[in-house]
Batch of 2 targets.
Target 1
Amino acid sequence: MLELAIGIILGGCALGAGAAMIAGIGPGIGEGNAVAKACEAIGRQPECKGDVTTTMLMGCAVAETTGLYALVIAILLIFLAPGRFVDILLNAIH
Amino acid sequence: MSKRRSASFILVDVLLILMILLPLFCGMVIKILTTPPTDEISIAGAQIYFIVPMPLQDMPITESQVNSWLVILSLLGVCLYLTHGLSPTYETRRQHFAEMIVEATDNMVNSNMGAYFKAFSPFICAIMALSAFSSLLTLIGLYPPTSDLNVVGGWALLVFFLITYYKFKCGPIHYLKSFAEPPALTPLNVISEIATPISMAFRHYGNVLSGSVISVLLAAALGGLSVTLFGNLPGILGKLPQVFPILRVGIPAILSLYFDIFSGCLQAFIFAMLTMLYVAGAFPAEDYARKMEKIKNKNKKTN
């Protein structure tokens, strides 16, 4: 019975980590849009390539933030949460 | 001016180069001595070297603290080396390099923050260099301090204090009023104020950490792959991949080029850029100029 409970905990953590990383879709689309527009801008005005590239990198980094939040949650779920939850379970039994 | 240098000049040069390299070497030696031997690849946080007892809570001295101090020492060595033997008449190559760095940061700060924040360029350059070199520590196999949330969180807290200081420039009433710009959105403004340092810290930490996690996973996968591919060869050849995973040579370097070098430098640049933008944006320039004018007028009247 205990093994089953621990298995459910581990499986739940892994599923949660996978589900959290669905958030990776958002930054992907957003950064793709930003880069596409930057390419258009450079094609129209090749002389301001440096400025456009700098601004695009800034925008990409800011757009990436939500994805990184999801990544941090996923990493916590994989490396930290299982031990915590198993400890809580064992404390509840004893 | 003669091109020959005196013996003492060269001696100081050698000492400074030692000052640059010795901290990194020390870090590698500490890492080798303290890492417990394991066969499996593990993804762990910073090691705790020792714990200093403190009255409220014990203070652990971790790998990230030690490594960031080593980076600071090394950077100090770089600065001293670049500025050693400055002269207005006979310019050396390193003087040109130092001048290039200073001019580039000055230009960046001037174009992004305006003339009022001219004095910010040493701070921006320092935070950029510290962040970039901390991330680049992975190249010599050390734990990068930027993949520890506490280190980057400390930097973000510093930036948060700067932002609040410049918002306070027009007095506390103006500061409180700035939260109630549209009065209905006050709670959202407060949340976004708190979210600024958190998002800065998480952005930097998440980028560096994800790079190292992916590198470790790839190394593990390549080790397993080389065992399955070459493990069935006859004789000693079959045993070889378990001792020396051949596929792990060279292939991870391609990923490392992006995750360690490009991403580390880019995150340093972005952290500095965001610092500049947030601090410059927090300063109410027009209201401050109006306030200064009022004070000037009052002084004129009293005179």
Target 2
Amino acid sequence: MTSVFRKFYFFLIGLFLALPLIVVAGVSVNQKQTLAFPPQGFSTSWYGEIFVNPEWRNALLASLTLAVLSAALAVAIALPLAWFLWRRVAPWANIFQLLGVAPFTLPPVITALGLLTFWATAGFYGQPWTAVVSHAIFFVTLPLVTLSLGFTSIDRSLVEAAATMGADDRTIFRTVVLPLILPYIVSGYAFAFVLSLNEYIVAYMTVGFTMETLPIKIFNALRYGYTPTMASVTVLFVSTAAVIFGLVARFGDLPKLLGAMASDQK
Amino acid sequence: MRREPPQTFADYSPLLFPAAMLTIFFVVPFGTMIAVSFFQRQQGGFYTPAFVFDNYARFLSAFFGGVLGFSMMMAIAVAICCVLLALPFTYLLTRMARRVQIVWLVALLSILSLSEVIIGFAWSTLFSRTAGITNILVALGLMSEAKALTPSFAAVLTGMVYQAFPYTVLVLFPALVRLDPTLTEAARTLGASPLKAFFTVVVPALRNTIVATLIMVFIFALGSYLLPQLLGRPQHWTLSVLITDQAIYQSNMPFAAAMAVFLVLVTLGLVALTVIAGRKGEAA
């Protein structure tokens, strides 16, 4: 009896989560440029449109470039910081940990507006690279949290053994710490990458008038009416996220990763 | 190798790059925003350095009070709906097989990472006249004619609950994983039904977690900047939407900055409350 109730409850939640995506997936295969569900006819041409139409293709390339670079920069900021906090006793340095978590805890519009006023004042407003820096700062929280967790899981006696045998900090980092921390670097990068790919407000406020990322392109297209390409892009995004998080789960300890992430955000 | 305090300047060197990046690109922009909030607005979207309170004085209007009240009410409604839906869900999820948990967690993460643009588009499609949910009801004979369900308050609320639900589950997840299973077992042994055990044992044991989660989801919902615009009417706009609108479309940066500073203060106050709620939880 309770098991039936539980299944029904999970089914309803699953339906609530999946329904909009099912309808969008259905709409994306319409033959003609109509917003109809169930779809009329079947065509995958709207998926081809993402790569064939220069506007959508450019937006896709812009989004991918932005996500690849900003996630790398976020990891580059987070890794030395997390390593330092693990290696040294320096309580005041925790302020940088706090600064790293802040952009993600505050409403996104605040970080976006801060960066907009900053780039405008500095005179770089609208330059593509400003979006990379902005996203890296906005999402630095994710690699920072996964890496902090990764460092706490390293057995210090391993490091001590290496030090006793004469390895210096650099050698220890390369031969002991880095191999152990690598899965956490990859998951931190993956989280930052997926979120950057989907991010709208920070990208819009920093470079919205000079270049279009995919979310900006979808939003602009929405204002001028409907095209099924939006639906196919949506399906592409959901599948990308599911594949990447699926891989993180496959090669890492997802429940553990999430257990630590949420407690760190408090 | 034990952790040791930094001895020489070279020991600090790993900190240089992260500290510089975070200071230049987060602390300084934050300061710039606060400074701009006191600037004088000029016609045509420009502003000049000044120290005026005009931008803050505009808060005292009835219109702004209405928006603020609506934003708070909306965020509270979203937080309550999400926690009501997510608490039993997460509790049951933590008691499932690991493989099932992982599938759900991947799905929840994928939805959580979705752009607000995409969530807004998906729900506006689902609520539309031609491709929407009402077509199913018509096909089932429950409705005579398909109709559009947006823009409306219910549409905004649904969209925001959809966006915040995965977040709520992920916030509750660690606390519920750590919940001692012997607590409910004891209640069951003493003859309580699963439902009764949930409400009399699990919920009270998690009181502080629930309060902290409500506040965190509230903050998360306050940050929603597009869904009220895509699924609602102008009277459903929240503070975040208004800030975006003032900054981008009205080109009134000083006023947008002043509202953002205000939003920061509200958020920080609530974060402080969450920390206090968390402390109490540890002490108990």
